[in-house]
Amino acid sequence: MSQQPVSLPYLQQFSLSGKIALISGASRDIGLEIARAMAGCGAHVILNGRDATTLDAAAAEIRSMGGSVQSLAFDVTDTDAVKHAFATIAQQHGRLDILVNNAGVRNRKPLLEFSDAEIMAMLSTNLIASYTLSREAARLMLPQRSGRLITVTSIAGKVARAGDAVYTGAKAGLTGMMRALAAEYGPLGITSNAIAPGGVATAANAAAISDPKINAHFATRTPLGRWAQPQEIAGAAVFLAGSAASYVNGHVLYVDGGMSIAM
Ligand SMILES: NC(=O)c1ccc[n+]([C@@H]2O[C@H](COP(=O)([O-])OP(=O)(O)OC[C@H]3O[C@@H](n4cnc5c(N)ncnc54)[C@H](OP(=O)(O)O)[C@@H]3O)[C@@H](O)[C@H]2O)c1
């Protein structure tokens, strides 16, 4: 007996065909995988990061797979550069449908070891930049009365570990920002949601993964018993960007192997 898929128009709800998506921190790992996945679902993806050469190589790879892509190098902590980037998007595309606030930096150490400058640098990239990017995205999305703001926060936005106060505070702040924007922009047609990954095998975790003690801790704390691959985060972003999530607003989607619910 041959099986035919049931044909229902709303099952096309993971298509991002014709959508314009900006993904910050898309030169590698989680951001790049989200960009690949969104391009694979039909979006035109705009890759952001600070290094133009790395971004161009990532864009070439997506293009070689048939994706529609461009790179836009700028530092998310440089507000003039951010405004210039959004002006470029407005000029080239006249719209923006999806913003993924993904760019982040890692600096794990006890609070007493942080200088003032290091605290500011962590908060600038991991928290404040998502405000400026979301604000500039909203300027384009509000006249459309549609748009998706997707913020990559972390399991650290919910549960805390000693020796990680600055990152933890930034990620908890992002969760608050995401919820406030969901309340503010929901009535205007724009949704705001977050993805909270657990431990993902990326460059930012290379040292932790090669440390047997930290590695064993993650395996014990995560019911699935392993680190995630970036591909396992990307599907959540596609879901939140598409019409499948049309009634999802103000939500934190934990993609953490169960870490947030386990003791
Ligand atoms: N990996 C995990 O286990 C994990 C868990 C929970 C949450 N997250 C979050 O997921 C996001 C991505 O993490 P990841 O592990 O994929 O990180 P990653 O491998 O270190 O990649 C970070 C990306 O952000 C870019 N970036 C950093 N600072 C930037 C800036 N000032 N302006 C523009 N781009 C900047 C980097 O490119 P350039 O350096 O070339 O600029 C890179 O593309 C982060 O927000 C992170 O906090 C990760």
Commentary on this structure:
The structure is a single chain. The chain has helices spanning 29-40, 52-64, 79-93, 116-144, 165-185, 206-210, 212-221, 231-241; strands at 20-23, 44-49, 68-73, 98-101, 147-152, 190-197, 252-255. Helix 2 links the parallel strand 2 and strand 3. The protein is globular, with a radius of gyration of 18 Å. The protein contains eight helices and seven strands, in the order E-H-E-H-E-H-E-H-E-H-E-H-H-H-E. The model has no long low-confidence stretch (mean pLDDT 95). Bound molecules: NADP nicotinamide-adenine-dinucleotide phosphate (NAP). NADP nicotinamide-adenine-dinucleotide phosphate binds at residues 24-31, 48-51, 54, 75-77, 102-105, 125, 152, 154, 197, 199-200, 202-205.
Brief summary:
The chain is α/β, with parallel strands linked by helices and 263 residues long. The protein has helices spanning 29-40, 52-64, 79-93, 116-144, 165-185, 206-210, 212-221, 231-241, and strands spanning 20-23, 44-49, 68-73, 98-101, 147-152, 190-197, 252-255. The protein is globular, with a radius of gyration of 18 Å.
Strand order of the largest sheet: 3-2-1-4-5-6-7
Biggest sheet, open or closed, and with what strands and sense? 7 strands, parallel
Count of helix runs? 8
Please count the beta strands (DSSP E, at least 2 residues each).
Answer: 7
Query: What are the bound molecules?
Result: NADP nicotinamide-adenine-dinucleotide phosphate
Order of SSEs: EHEHEHEHEHEHHHE
Give the overall shape, derived from the CA principal axes.
globular
Q: Which class of secondary structure composition applies to the elements?
A: alpha/beta
Q: What is the CA–CA distance across the termini?
A: 46 Å
Portion in helices? 40-55%
Q: Report the radius of gyration as a whole number of Å.
A: 18 Å
The average pLDDT is: 95
Sheet-strand content, in percent, reads 5-15%
Low-confidence spans: none
